[in-house]
Amino acid sequence: MASFNSYVVFGVLVIMASGAVMARDVDPIKANNCETKMTLHCVNEVFTSIFKTGIVTDNCCIELIGLGKFCHDALIKKTLENPLFKNNDTSVILSRGAQVWNKCTLVSKDVSPSPSPY
């Protein structure tokens, strides 16, 4: 009976350990639905302003702030991991990403919701 209990304990430990390993492999972008929180138009606008040259409109800034800083940073990092972008200067891209985020936080503060008529 003691050996049966040992197998049960061992089985539980294996299941717990595999769960811990799987938890580390969760993609934070998918886990936070980062890919679905902005329109494709605004994704392209923000991407172009960070990785190429362009501006982000006020409407897309509002969407970016709605996306959240975590998703913004995670998407930039994920893009930089792509072999197509290996020749980009990481410090320049991260700086542009921060500039876009800071600009958009100012825009979102300027755009206040309409006062309620009630």
UniProtKB/TrEMBL annotation:
Domain Prolamin-like: 33-104
The entry's keywords: Signal
InterPro entries: Prolamin-like (IPR008502)
Signal peptide span: 1-23
Pfam families in UniProt: Prolamin_like
Entries under PANTHER family matching the protein: BIFUNCTIONAL INHIBITOR/LIPID-TRANSFER PROTEIN/SEED STORAGE 2S ALBUMIN SUPERFAMILY PROTEIN-RELATED (PTHR31951), ECA1 GAMETOGENESIS RELATED FAMILY (PTHR31951:SF22)
Protein name stated in the entry: Prolamin-like domain-containing protein
Species per Swiss-Prot/TrEMBL record: Theobroma cacao (Cacao)
Lineage start: Eukaryota, Viridiplantae, Streptophyta, Embryophyta, Tracheophyta
